[in-house]
Amino acid sequence: MESEMNRKNDILHPRTLVIHQDFEELRDFILSLPERFERNEGVVIHKGRNELRKMKYNGREYVVKSFHRPNFINRFVYGIFRPSKAKRSYDHADMYLKIGVGTPRPVGYLNVRSGLLFDRSYYVSCLSTCPYVYNDLFKQKFEYEEEVLREIGRVTAILHEHGYAHKDYGRENILFQKVPGGIKLEIVDLNRMFIGTIGMKAGCKNFERLPATPQMHRWMAEEYAKVRGFDAEKCFELMVSYRSTQPGKINNLY
């Protein structure tokens, strides 16, 4: 009886799974994610339009992002024409790692349909070891703050040189920690990405959602300009200018 119900469910709600070859043992776990979310398994990291949970499986912890169900028109569009947000997250993470930019290792993704319509998607990655996010720079003192800001400028420049610009480049999506030899940086929430030619103005504008003092902007600008062959002073001026247009900003920080 149970197997018959499962077969009917597979027909009415077909599931598409893509999994990295290194994580084949997680196949059953990823396929069961819709049911696990219904049972409220794991620890909620973030809950809004999308939901982020930390889950443990076979002794290891993973992060699972459940994307909200789109409106009716987009359910048709995602079902036929456009890749899901989970697929984009997986593909973009792979792109980052191939050019040497840090992000938690992508494990796989699951798309669930309801007939011809797209329903939900789930993206799974390894759990980052980085204990801090960019916003923590304003909550406590870091002796290596300059190193963090310079690394952000350098890594962002590498992304832009390869034609990638994170479209949600905000204070919660840049993770960091001090490691022997420097700073480990990981960027998350990768489903929205611009891919194309990125000049100096567009590149500096990409920093606009990051709160910063003038000194912080200068550190980022210097490293960004060094990698891309731009004028550091001009990059600094552009970053400050673009940040000043952000709503709700106070004293160049918020």
Question: How is the topology of this model organized?
Answer:
Blueprint: H1 2-12, E1 15-19, H2 27-31, H3 33-38, E2 43-47, E3 51-57, E4 60-67, H4 72-80, H5 85-98, E5 106-114, E6 117-126, E7 132-133, H6 145-161, E8 164-166, E9 174-179, E10 182-187, E11 193-195, H7 200-205, H8 214-228, H9 232-244
Antiparallel strand pairs: 1-5, 2-3, 3-4, 4-6, 5-6, 7-9, 8-11, 9-10
Helix pairs in contact: 6-8, 8-9
Question: Nutshell version of this structure?
Answer:
Helices cover 38% and strands 25% of the residues.
Task: Name a few traits of the molecule.
single chain; 254 residues; Phosphorylase Kinase, domain 1; Transferase(Phosphotransferase), domain 1; 2 domains; 6-stranded antiparallel sheet; 3-stranded antiparallel sheet; 9 helices; 25% strand
Beta-strand share of residues: 25-35%
Mean pLDDT: 89
The biggest sheet amounts to: 6 strands, antiparallel
Count of runs of 4 or more consecutive helical residues: 9
**Count of folded domains:** 2
Shape: elongated
Strand order of the largest sheet: 1-5-6-4-3-2
Helix content: 25-40%
The CATH class of the largest domain turns out to be Alpha Beta
The low-pLDDT segments are 1-9
What is the element string, with H for helices and E for strands? HEHHEEEHHEEEHEEEEHHH
Strands, count: 11
Amino-to-carboxy terminus distance: 58 Å
Query: What structural class do the secondary elements suggest?
Result: alpha+beta
